[in-house]
Amino acid sequence: MQLQEKISKRSLPLRDPREDILAGIQELAPEIKVRAAEIEAARRVPPDIVERLRYLGLFRMFVPRSQGGLEFDFPAGLEIIKALTRLDGSIGWISIVGGVGSLFAAAASPDVYQRVYQDGPDVAICGSSQPGGTAERVADGYRIKGRWPFASSCTHADWIGGFCIVTENGKPIPGPQGKPLVRVVVLPARDWDIEDTWYAAGLKGTGSHHITLRERLVPETHLFDLEAPPRMSGPLYHALRQWLPLLHGTFSVGMAEGTVDDLLALAHTGRQQLYAAVPMRDSETFQYELGRISANLKAAQAFLEVQIASHWRRALAGTLRDEDLMIEGARSAVWLATTCVGIADACFALAGSSAVYDSSPLQRRLRDLHVGAQHAHAQQRLYVDVGKLALRRSADQAG
């Protein structure tokens, strides 16, 4: 009997970690929705929810299998990020940070990388990509000091990184194209100070405070160059910058999906607005606008899927480190942010006066999407590079 049980267990299919995480997210969904106001008021994701996400495997999604991670294909990881974003903007944002943090860490020196993951793969890594610090070259390494904004997830991070301008004798060292040389410093979270500055219009629960380092001597191994050749094999680790626009596009689409979910939930309550002849769901005006919104959402979903698939094919082929692909990714991120902000605006307007209350998820979606669209990777000014690329390609074809 025992032998039959063993044979039976061996014949069972192996569990799919991605499906397990998605199922865990669905189990957690009601609690996240109920605690949305708590998350905003605390201006951070509560520690117990962070630990639930850690247990589900959020922080190990893109960690190599050699370190005990899941090493998901990038599209699979984005599916998980989108599922969390659809529930709550702040949860979705910290899931992006949790995913990209492990990709940043893959560029670190082998010694530091081993330290980061010495106790296992479930490590929360965050940082700030604005070059708010300086790294002065000295005999024993670098003297680091600075103040960095928008350090999302710093309240629950285990390790934190910050971009620094490298200096010598107090002067910036020239890097590529004559711009100042920039390196990333990564240190345990306990070495950083967090300034309580995150009082924002949206994404309030992300804990995106300022972080500071008071002049600190750091060994050279704790600084790394994101543009250097990859230290690890595998399609996830050949490039980093090219993934960033896709993360922002995923956030925008996940938020738009959640916004439409919230509008439909409101309509299904039978709500009838003041002076309206019929309930919202029976109004042809509402139905018309909902149809238009649904078409825009479908277009956004399709564009995101095409861009993700295209980038992943290039990653598998080992050709992702291409500046033109960065511009193509930016094109999708900006268009998706603009389109999804429009969806949120339209949903908020359709909901009527009930949407203005703090208790309405629609006003929170509206604020979160607008704040997300302010990020450098989603700013409309990036269309300039997109236009230049279109002109160059047209000229090349003509020639």
TrEMBL record:
Keyword terms, alphabetized: Monooxygenase, Oxidoreductase
Superkingdom of the source species: Bacteria
Protein name: Flavin-dependent monooxygenase
The Acyl-CoA dehydrogenase/oxidase N-terminal domain, residue ranges: 30-106
Key word Repeat present: no
InterPro entries documented for this protein: Acyl-CoA_dehydrogenase-like, Acyl-CoA_DH_C, Acyl-CoA_Oxase/DH_mid-dom_sf, AcylCo_DH-like_C, AcylCoA_DH/ox_N, AcylCoA_DH/ox_N_sf, AcylCoA_DH/oxidase_NM_dom_sf
Molecular function, one GO term: monooxygenase activity
One Pfam family cited in the UniProt record for this chain: Acyl-CoA_dh_2
Domain Acyl-CoA dehydrogenase C-terminal: 247-379
